[in-house]
Design goal:
Number of helices: 4
Shape: globular
Number of strands: 5
Largest sheet: 5 strands, mixed
Strand content: 15-25%
Structural class: alpha+beta
Order of helices and strands: EHEEHEEHH
Radius of gyration: 15 Å
Number of domains: 1
């Protein structure tokens, strides 16, 4: 997603319990949008234009901290270019969750995820709001 001369370097990863080309396509589309449209960053939501997996209610993504991996994954220092890359997590979310985030904020949505014992890898999960 990032090029060495960018002011801010960011990369995204996505977790899934199955391997499908749809995930590669989503990450590629977001990387393209990041390069040619508006830059994306922590707390942003992106419209996938389709469910992230067939039959899923999740057709958006939330750019989040890499909670499942811990803070050691978040920042990668690249000594060759003397810059750091911020590695963030693309969490599939529903349209209702996007609307909730817009109304109450990112932290409130993440609180809802925690309260609901959000299953991050479940492509068939229901909305938490």
């Amino acid at each position: 997603m990032s090029q060495p001369d960018d002011d801010t370097l960011i990369e995204l990863h996505l977790f899934s319990d199955i391997k499908v080309n749809q995930h590669v396509e989503l990450l590629t589309a977001i990387a393209h949008y990041n390069r040619t449209g508006n830059r994306v960053g922590l707390g942003d939501s992106v419209n996938f234009g389709r469910p992230w997996m067939t039959g899923s209610q999740c057709s958006y993504g939330l750019i989040s901290l890499p909670y499942l991996d811990g803070p050691n994954l978040e920042i990668l220092y690249l000594p060759d270019i003397a810059k750091s890359v911020r590695c963030l997590w693309l969490v599939p979310i529903t349209e209702a969750e996007v609307e909730y985030k817009k109304r109450y904020g990112n932290e409130a949505l993440e609180d809802k995820f925690e309260e609901a014992q959000f299953r991050y890898l479940d492509g068939d999960r229901l909305s938490v709001v």
